[in-house]
Predict the 3D structure of the following.
Amino acid sequence: MDFASTLDRFQQLTQDHSTQFKPQLHQIRQKLDAEMAQLQQQEAELVQAQNQALQELRQAISTDARFLLATAQFQIFVESIVPKKYPSYYSRPQIQVANKVADWLLNQSTEAIGISKYQEDIDHDGYDDERTYTLYSYGIDIQWGDKAKSIREIQIERVYGVAEHRMHDPADQIDEIGDRFNTFYKWDQQTVEEKILALEMGYLTYYVCTLLKLQPQKVQIVYDSTARAE
C-alpha cells in the first residue's frame, strides 16, 4: 500500500472540506452576529426598564423591607421552607415562625428594616480543624431602627475537593442569619418572642438576598450542533 498517496489523499480531502464549508460557516456567523446586534438593539429599552425597576426595588428594600411581608410571593416562600430540626441531644429549644406571615411579630413592629449591600464572597483558605476547604458565602448590611449590623459569611457551600462538598440549604442559612440577630439581645435575658422575632428577621433577610441577586434578563444564544431539531 502506498501510504504516502493515502496521506496526500487525506490532506486533499481536508482541504476540500475547508474550501467547501468555511465560507458557509463564515456567512452563518456574520448573519448571526447581525441578527444578535439587531435583537440587542431592540431589547435595550426593556433592559433599561428592568434596571430601573431593580434600582427602585433595592431602594425600597434599603429603606424598609417590611413591605415584602404583605406580598403573596413572600408567603409562598415561607411555606416552601422546611424548618431546620435539631438533634434530640441539642439543648436549644425549637423556635418556629407562624405559618401565616400576617401573624408575624414583625408586622407589629414600628421599626424600619433597611437591608442593603449584598455581596458574595469566596474564601479558598477555610479550615475546620481537620481539613481546608473553599467557602462560598455572602454578606449583608442591616439597619433595624436605631440598630445596625453587618452580617458576613452566611455559608452557602463548603467544597473540600472534587468528590466532597457540603451544602447549606435555605433553612440552614435562615437559621444562621437569625442567630446573628439574636446578638442584639442579652442571651440570658432574651424572651421567646425576641427569639421568634430574630428568626422572622432571618426569613426576611434571606428572601431579600434572593431579590438583591436579581439581574436584568438579556438575549443570549448558545448553539449546540449536536442537538436535534424537534
Observations:
- The chain has four helices and four strands.
- Strands lie at 113-127, 132-144, 147-161, 164-167.
- The mean pLDDT is 88.
- The longest strand covers residues 113-127.
